[in-house]
């Protein structure tokens, strides 16, 4: 934040201007839409890949891991192993994206993800080659994890930097719409296959089809991304950035932004614990722990995801009007208070109550998802934004988010309690609530400049800007700054 004189004097220079959708030319609006669609398409493919693995866990446990007593745990470990490598991918691809551009890295990541996922569809089974089968699966999951370490962060940053500041919540929610679209496509495809060919048909080889379909889908996303360009926000920052290497970017991030890294890690624990428990582990939990028919479990989750897709974009637009923090705090409090009751509803065996339990998780999860692309990139200044998002997000995901299914399944086996996921989500809710409480409000703030968005709130108040939500005021200067601003003339906004 720029320096303030005593008594709330005007800043020495004006903060970066706020971009508004109404001020964009027709060409600029087309560029925004094109950028959003390109980022969303690749993101949908990534989460389609993760979704089909989650929905096919039981079949993979039989085909790749031999159907032994612990084969489901091994299959879940195969899901979790990619998350162990994601921080490495984030540490390499994030700083690289801050140096050479977001678009180049995003082309590379979607190519790598699509090819590695399609290769799972041609793996030899346990009966063919024994332990070589899971070894090859683990290798492909590691490649997926490395590329995913840069994919999601890059797509979110790319979209956030292209969106106008006053509509970043609306446009950013399309990325998570793509996430839900990918998972819904996975759920619909696998559930339909289960219904058409049955469990025996899936075991006979139909489990391969969803993985193979990622190759043509990935080619479509790749073609879309090849024609995209980096944002003016990034280009402006690159012109003034004196760093000469990706390593220097990573070093400066860790030494200069440690608090922001802890903040993004805290909220990521909540987001991805909820995300992976509800959207990937839940089919396995309902099937193996609660003895629910796999098709029924799939259909219930598809219904919840489709409803989430309907409401996510309006919710994103709502955060542009009321701010990100109120919605995020409500979601974190909801997971903290209602996760255990929701799991108890799932354990009743009554379909209506089970749907209600899933709906509770879905409501609070979509309140988190609609905020991600607008909120998390705004935790860092432009020159380290990709690196900060990628590193912090992926470290937290690898620790508690991605392995959530494996951890919960192991704890259920050890304790015999089907309430384990509820307790796990409650802890994640508390961690997320603490992190979110420390956030600046960034709705309507500019992502340009060399400061963390929101840190220059008092500078904006001093020049008469009206801000959405809580004003960042660490030294209780707000009243003095407002008085000075009101005494110098009517409020005005930078256009």
UniProtKB/TrEMBL annotation:
<feature type="transmembrane region" description="Helical">
    <location>
        <begin position="105"/>
        <end position="126"/>
    </location>
</feature>
<feature type="transmembrane region" description="Helical">
    <location>
        <begin position="72"/>
        <end position="93"/>
    </location>
</feature>
<dbReference type="GO" id="GO:0005886">
    <property type="term" value="C:plasma membrane"/>
</dbReference>
<keyword id="KW-1133">Transmembrane helix</keyword>
<keyword id="KW-0812">Transmembrane</keyword>
<keyword id="KW-1003">Cell membrane</keyword>
<dbReference type="Pfam" id="PF07690">
    <property type="entry name" value="MFS_1"/>
</dbReference>
<feature type="transmembrane region" description="Helical">
    <location>
        <begin position="205"/>
        <end position="224"/>
    </location>
</feature>
<dbReference type="InterPro" id="IPR051084">
    <property type="entry name" value="H+-coupled_symporters"/>
</dbReference>
<feature type="transmembrane region" description="Helical">
    <location>
        <begin position="261"/>
        <end position="282"/>
    </location>
</feature>
<feature type="transmembrane region" description="Helical">
    <location>
        <begin position="419"/>
        <end position="439"/>
    </location>
</feature>
<feature type="region of interest" description="Disordered">
    <location>
        <begin position="1"/>
        <end position="24"/>
    </location>
</feature>
<keyword id="KW-0813">Transport</keyword>
<dbReference type="InterPro" id="IPR020846">
    <property type="entry name" value="MFS_dom"/>
</dbReference>
<protein>
    <submittedName>
        <fullName>MFS transporter, MHS family, proline/betaine transporter</fullName>
    </submittedName>
</protein>
<feature type="transmembrane region" description="Helical">
    <location>
        <begin position="294"/>
        <end position="315"/>
    </location>
</feature>
<keyword id="KW-0472">Membrane</keyword>
<dbReference type="InterPro" id="IPR036259">
    <property type="entry name" value="MFS_trans_sf"/>
</dbReference>
<dbReference type="InterPro" id="IPR011701">
    <property type="entry name" value="MFS"/>
</dbReference>
<comment type="similarity">
    <text>Belongs to the major facilitator superfamily. Metabolite:H+ Symporter (MHS) family (TC 2.A.1.6) family.</text>
</comment>
<feature type="transmembrane region" description="Helical">
    <location>
        <begin position="351"/>
        <end position="374"/>
    </location>
</feature>
<feature type="transmembrane region" description="Helical">
    <location>
        <begin position="386"/>
        <end position="407"/>
    </location>
</feature>
<feature type="transmembrane region" description="Helical">
    <location>
        <begin position="138"/>
        <end position="158"/>
    </location>
</feature>
<dbReference type="InterPro" id="IPR005829">
    <property type="entry name" value="Sugar_transporter_CS"/>
</dbReference>
<dbReference type="GO" id="GO:0015293">
    <property type="term" value="F:symporter activity"/>
</dbReference>
<feature type="transmembrane region" description="Helical">
    <location>
        <begin position="170"/>
        <end position="193"/>
    </location>
</feature>
<feature type="domain" description="Major facilitator superfamily (MFS) profile">
    <location>
        <begin position="35"/>
        <end position="444"/>
    </location>
</feature>
<feature type="transmembrane region" description="Helical">
    <location>
        <begin position="327"/>
        <end position="345"/>
    </location>
</feature>
<keyword id="KW-0769">Symport</keyword>
């Amino acid at each position: 934040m720029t320096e303030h004189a005593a008594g709330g004097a005007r800043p020495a220079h004006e903060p970066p201007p706020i971009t508004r959708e109404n001020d964009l030319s027709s060409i600029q609006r087309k560029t925004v839409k094109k950028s959003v669609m390109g980022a969303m398409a690749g993101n949908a493919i990534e989460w389609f890949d993760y979704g089909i693995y989650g929905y096919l866990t039981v079949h993979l446990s039989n085909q790749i891991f031999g159907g032994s007593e612990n084969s489901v745990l091994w299959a879940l470990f195969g899901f979790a192993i990619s998350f162990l490598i994601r921080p490495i991918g984030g540490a390499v691809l994030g700083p690289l994206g801050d140096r050479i551009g977001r678009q180049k890295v995003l082309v590379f990541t979607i190519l790598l993800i699509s090819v590695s996922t399609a290769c799972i569809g041609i793996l030899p089974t346990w009966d063919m080659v024994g332990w070589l089968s899971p070894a090859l699966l683990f290798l492909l999951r590691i490649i997926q994890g490395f590329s995913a370490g840069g994919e999601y962060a890059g797509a979110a940053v790319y979209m956030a930097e292209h969106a106008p500041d006053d509509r970043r919540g609306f446009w950013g929610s399309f990325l998570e719409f793509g996430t839900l679209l990918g998972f819904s496509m996975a759920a619909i495809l696998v559930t339909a296959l289960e219904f058409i060919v049955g469990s025996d048909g899936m075991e006979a080889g139909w489990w391969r089809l969803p993985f193979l379909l990622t190759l043509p889908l990935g080619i479509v996303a790749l073609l879309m991304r090849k024609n995209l360009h980096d944002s003016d926000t990034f280009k402006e920052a690159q012109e003034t950035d004196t760093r000469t290497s990706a390593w220097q970017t990573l070093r400066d991030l860790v030494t200069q932004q440690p608090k922001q890294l802890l903040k993004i890690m805290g909220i990521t624990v909540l987001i991805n614990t909820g995300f992976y428990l509800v959207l990937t582990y839940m089919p396995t939990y309902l099937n193996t722990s609660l003895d629910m028919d796999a098709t029924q479990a799939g259909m219930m989750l598809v219904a919840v995801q489709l409803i989430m897709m309907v409401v996510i974009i309006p919710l994103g637009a709502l955060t542009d009007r009321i701010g990100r923090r109120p919605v995020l705090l409500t979601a974190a409090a909801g997971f903290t208070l209602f996760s255990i009751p929701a799991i108890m509803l799932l354990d009743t065996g009554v379909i209506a109550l089970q749907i209600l339990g899933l709906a509770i998780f879905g409501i609070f999860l979509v309140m988190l998802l609609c905020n991600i692309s607008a909120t998390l990139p705004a935790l860092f200044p432009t020159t380290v934004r990709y690196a900060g998002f990628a590193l912090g997000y992926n470290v937290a995901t690898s620790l508690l988010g991605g392995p959530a299914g494996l951890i919960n399944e192991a704890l259920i086996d050890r304790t015999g309690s089907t309430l384990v996921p509820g307790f796990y989500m409650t802890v994640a809710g508390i961690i997320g609530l603490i992190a979110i409480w420390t956030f600046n409000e960034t709705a309507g703030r500019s992502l340009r400049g060399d400061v963390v968005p929101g840190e220059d709130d008092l500078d904006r108040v001093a020049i008469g800007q009206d801000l959405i939500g809580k004003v960042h005021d660490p030294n209780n200067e707000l009243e003095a700054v407002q008085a000075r601003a009101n005494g110098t003339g009517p409020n005005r906004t930078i256009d």
